[in-house]
Specification:
10 strands, Type Iii Antifreeze Protein Isoform Hplc 12, TIM Barrel, 340 residues, eight-stranded parallel β-sheet, 14 helices, two-stranded antiparallel ribbon, alpha/beta, 2 domains
């Protein structure tokens, strides 16, 4: 059974609080996620002071009078000391730490921490210097593709490969970057199109409300699922509204693990759990009325009833014209010893 890599995206839902970030790690670990992921950036390297918030960010932070991305992001930075504390807490909780870097300096910092799995966010897949730097590390890469065209994805793969990361180490996540994403805009089949077109492992980064779509993505072949989570959707912040609460995250992980088990190996055959039901559920050939010894069987003499422990109805033709060896009553379960 192939195990889906489940990334619980804490992102910036810590609201700048180290204690809240640690609690998010606890929630992800308790839910059974494989990875808990944060975001690493220097606001001054990520965004100009004139850049405005996205519409969903304004909508999710109605009490914040500052409409600039810079002001919002500055409050959400994690310090170097915070990173060390969070990694230590992840070790304690037996869950893998990951963070998305949004600038070159932050990439170098994550490498210095021993990170060898790199997550490319949707907004960076057209950032040539950024892609070249990640490609040069030669580690495993997971790239989200929200807002992207197939040409964008192709160009990104070319840059990563030319920089030193083989396609076999790259997983492409289909994604929609509206928060929350309208279900009509998810286009989940595009994930399969990406895999078929580029010959890469695929997954899905979900921003819909609820857990149905990531579960469906696993059924369609996703090898990685990424989903935002929070302690409380009512908290103020850019991503809380499109995030799962703790019980929902746990339910998503539980459901994905069940889907993995249910997918199986694709070979159609009776399973051990159902073998005992064959005799109960299938039918055998019985006599429809009392018949004397020497009677030559016709189709009207036979009826198909449970249990399935006798001659299969598929053998009806083989009984036609056979003679009974003895007197037999109606409803008798016929055996090959009863005929010649």
């Amino acid at each position: 059974m192939n195990r889906t890599l489940i990334i619980a995206e804490a992102g910036v839902n810590h609201n700048g609080s180290l204690d809240l970030a640690k609690t998010l790690i606890d929630v992800a670990a308790d839910a059974g996620a494989d990875i808990v992921k944060f975001q690493t950036f220097k606001a001054e390297n990520l965004v100009s002071k004139a850049a405005q918030k996205a519409a969903y960010q304004v909508g999710n932070m109605p009490e914040d009078a500052d409409t600039s991305q810079f002001g919002m992001l500055k409050k959400l930075e994690l310090s170097e000391a915070d990173h060390h504390a969070l990694i230590a807490h992840c070790h304690e909780r037996n869950i893998r730490f990951l963070s998305t870097a949004f600038d070159l300096e932050s990439l170098d910092f994550l490498v210095s921490l021993g990170i060898n799995l790199f997550k490319i966010p949707s907004g960076e897949i057209t950032n040539l210097p950024y892609l070249r730097k990640i490609g040069s590390f030669g580690g495993r890469v997971i790239a989200s593709t929200g807002m992207a065209t197939m040409d964008d994805i192709s160009a990104m793969l070319t840059v990563l490969e030319q920089a030193g990361t083989p396609r076999s180490q790259i997983t492409i996540l289909h994604c929609n970057t509206e928060y929350p994403s309208p279900f009509a805009d998810v286009n989940l089949r595009a994930m399969q199109t990406i895999g078929d077109t580029f010959g890469v492992s695929v997954g899905y980064s979900d921003h819909t409300s609820g857990i149905e779509v990531p579960i469906a993505a696993v059924a369609l072949g996703a090898t990685v699922i990424e989903k935002h989570f929070t302690l409380d959707r009512s908290l103020e912040g850019p991503d809380h509204l499109a995030s799962l609460e703790p019980d929902e995250l746990k339910q998503m992980v539980w459901s994905i693990r069940h889907i993995e088990a249910a997918l199986g190996d694709g070979i159609k055959r009776p399973t051990p759990s159902e073998a005992k039901n064959r005799v109960v559920a299938r039918k055998s050939i019985h006599l429809s009325h009392d018949l004397p010894a020497g009677h030559v069987l016709t189709e009207s003499d036979l009826t198909m009833k449970r249990p399935g422990s006798g001659i299969s109805p598929m053998q009806t033709d083989a009984l036609m014209g056979r003679q009974l060896t003895r007197n037999l009553p109606a409803d008798h379960l016929l055996t090959w010893e009863d005929v010649v």
